[in-house]
Structure to design on (705 residues):
């Protein structure tokens, strides 16, 4: 899979990027006492851009969904979504979530996809960036001493007597 | 135009768990075996576990649901009338490519449900008769486990030591110990030491998206290399449309599409179906001829009926302690069979098992983890995610389904695969017995997670993408009016047509069935070797 910085078709026009960045920061806001960047400031828009551009279905869903967000925001403030206070932005998003569930589900899923495969986030979680192979993990064998008591309780499975064998 | 090709002795359809075991057994015994598989070979170095976006592959080419994955070798399944979606994979290795490698056996009582509990039916084989084949299969697949489990009669030694428990396993075991309930390291078809030319597991976690080390046993890395070395032929990208019947009423081969989409007629003296508990009945229903207007081998009308799944409830405990839950084979740690057997004081018969499932990687957790509880977006996102990451233990409650004839596979009137072969439709409802059983299991799972120290318990009472186990649709039996095949897997109606996959199972047990399915396949092969050579003398 290409990195977000690689070239390829894109979907969002320049003027939509600010709006999208703001939406992404509402979906995954900065957190953990400022340790974790929000999805917008982390630049996850680049991941969304690539993914949506490659799918006819996502292009349709996102065109409609983003228009809905704009309209819902402009009903509250003619300067649009970005100018709303954060709690009002969240309300707008919740409304669009219930009105355009397929779009919103795709928006959240692909935002999570981009965020939780980002090497910076992986490192903040205490993991090594990169795939699970070839390094794998060391894992302790664990404590099997409790099995003594299990064995002492005796047979747990049901016996079949000779009469049961037809 | 169909072309004749050389007649083979034994023609196996499907190169999965049972197809691999059976083909190896008869190739070793000197039979001329050909297997046709509609999928291809998977190269272990291509598995997503070697790529940075590995978790995203669960949504795309490694999605367990064929309806979402839509690879060329997949066929669509109509699952709109079932609360559980069947999850099969077509390749050399079949569904073992994706499986978590749980490897518990059925128990002696599973073969005698009617005699013991007055429901379902008895099998025409016993645990004791299958024991040598369980042991043989364990040797061929390579099992990690521990001798002495009181939930079974004594078994042959496991090939490698048990899967490490880690902090997660220790935490869960302490919960079982506090309540005095059975638990044991779960038999798993995953190597913890090098064995048979394959490497040991390095605890990377996501077994479901393939094992580049070949530590997880799938039949492409266990049975097939040996079967081919013994002379078995395996043709991939060969999609079988129907089994054909000769004038004598015996099976005489199959019609299939080859890798170029050309129709071929492969002739055989014996035909063996190993296409899983949905694929095999689909093939039989698609094989219509004048002696078999309702599908091949279906004079009883029982083909494709009595479909059994294992209903899965996922009960997830969230712990304060960081359990490093993403380390270790995700599905395999310990198993509890405390509630496996029927207890007449309960309001249901039969029982369930608890497979203890570890945590997941970060993206999979954000999207819901094992129980599909998506982490909410917004202000709560970071605190909920951080609360759960690496800190969940999920109890998979696996319930024993009873066979019911209205639970079935039919041919969908509209859906078909890319070659136009009618697709299967699943019609399935949970029985009253299953609903009561799962309620009981969810309550007990909650209890033991709390005993282990869980601060919060999340419940998914019935997981939809959980149709890994497909059983019952061409059941065995001694009475030809009550079963499709006899005690040696031979169709009552067509004695040179054998079935060796999960379709055979008379009852479903309450544990993952692959070990039992493969043992049965080896048992059936052994009988062919001893008693069925006369079919090979036909011209």
């Amino acid at each position: 899979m290409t990195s977000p910085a690689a070239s390829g078709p894109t979907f969002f026009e320049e003027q939509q990027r600010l709006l999208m960045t703001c939406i992404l920061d509402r979906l995954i806001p900065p957190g953990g006492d400022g340790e974790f960047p929000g999805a917008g400031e982390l630049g996850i828009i680049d991941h969304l851009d690539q993914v949506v551009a490659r799918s006819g279905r996502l292009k349709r869903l996102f065109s409609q969904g983003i228009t809905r967000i704009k309209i819902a925001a402009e009903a509250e403030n003619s300067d649009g979504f970005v100018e709303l206070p954060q709690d009002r932005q969240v309300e707008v998003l919740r409304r669009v979530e219930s009105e355009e569930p397929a779009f919103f589900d795709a928006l959240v899923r692909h935002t999570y996809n981009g965020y939780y495969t980002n090497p910076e986030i992986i490192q903040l979680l205490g993991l090594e960036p990169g795939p699970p192979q070839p390094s794998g993990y060391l894992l302790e064998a664990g404590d099997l001493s409790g099995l003594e008591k299990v064995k002492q309780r005796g047979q747990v499975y049901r016996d079949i007597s000779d009469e049961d064998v037809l | 135009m169909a072309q004749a090709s050389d007649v083979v002795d034994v023609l196996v359809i499907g190169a999965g768990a049972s197809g691999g075991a059976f083909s190896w057994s008869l190739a070793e015994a000197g039979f001329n075996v050909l297997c046709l598989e509609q999928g291809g070979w998977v190269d272990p170095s291509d598995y997503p576990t070697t790529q940075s976006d590995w978790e995203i592959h669960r949504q795309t080419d490694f999605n367990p649901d064929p309806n979402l994955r839509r690879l060329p070798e997949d066929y669509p399944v109509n699952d709109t009338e079932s609360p559980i979606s069947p999850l099969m994979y077509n390749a050399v290795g079949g569904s073992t490519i994706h499986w978590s490698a749980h490897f518990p056996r059925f128990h002696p009582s599973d073969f005698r449900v009617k005699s013991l509990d007055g429901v379902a039916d008895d099998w025409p084989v016993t645990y004791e008769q299958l024991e040598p084949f369980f042991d043989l299969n364990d040797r061929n697949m390579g099992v990690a486990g521990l001798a002495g489990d009181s939930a079974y009669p004594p078994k042959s030694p496991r090939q490698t030591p048990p899967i490490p428990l880690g902090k997660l396993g220790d935490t869960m075991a302490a919960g079982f110990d506090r309540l005095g309930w059975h638990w044991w390291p779960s038999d798993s078809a995953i190597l913890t030491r090098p064995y048979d030319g394959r490497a040991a597991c390095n605890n990377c976690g996501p077994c479901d998206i393939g094992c580049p080390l070949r530590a997880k046993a799938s039949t492409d890395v266990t049975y097939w290399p040996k079967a081919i070395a013994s002379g078995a032929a395996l043709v991939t990208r060969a999609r079988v449309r129907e089994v054909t019947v000769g004038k004598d009423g015996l099976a005489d081969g199959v019609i299939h599409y080859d890798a170029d989409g050309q129709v071929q007629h492969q002739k055989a003296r014996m035909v063996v179906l190993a296409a899983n508990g949905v694929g095999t009945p689909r093939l039989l229903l698609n094989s219509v001829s004048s002696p078999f207007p309702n599908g091949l081998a279906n004079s009883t009308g029982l083909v494709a009926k009595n479909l059994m799944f294992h209903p899965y409830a996922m009960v997830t405990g969230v712990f304060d302690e960081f359990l490093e839950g993403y380390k270790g084979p995700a599905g395999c740690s310990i198993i509890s069979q405390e509630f496996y057997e029927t207890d007449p004081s309960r309001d249901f018969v039969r029982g369930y098992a608890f497979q203890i499932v570890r945590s997941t990687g970060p993206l999979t957790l954000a999207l819901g983890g094992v129980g599909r509880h998506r982490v909410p977006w917004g202000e709560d996102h970071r605190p909920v995610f951080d609360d759960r990451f690496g800190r969940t233990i999920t109890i998979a409650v696996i319930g024993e389904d009873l066979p019911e004839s209205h639970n079935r596979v039919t041919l969908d009137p509209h859906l078909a695969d890319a070659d136009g072969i009618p697709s299967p439709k699943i019609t399935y409802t949970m029985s009253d017995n299953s609903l009561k059983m799962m309620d009981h299991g969810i309550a007990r799972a909650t209890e033991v997670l709390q005993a282990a120290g869980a601060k919060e318990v999340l419940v998914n009472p019935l997981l939809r993408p959980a149709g890994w186990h497909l059983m019952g649709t061409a059941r065995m039996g001694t009475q030809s009016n009550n079963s499709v095949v006899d005690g040696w897997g031979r169709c009552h109606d067509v004695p040179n047509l054998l079935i060796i996959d999960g379709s055979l199972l008379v009852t479903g047990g309450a544990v993952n069935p692959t070990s039992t399915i493969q043992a049965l396949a080896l048992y059936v092969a052994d009988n062919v070797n001893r008693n069925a050579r006369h079919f090979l003398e036909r011209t």
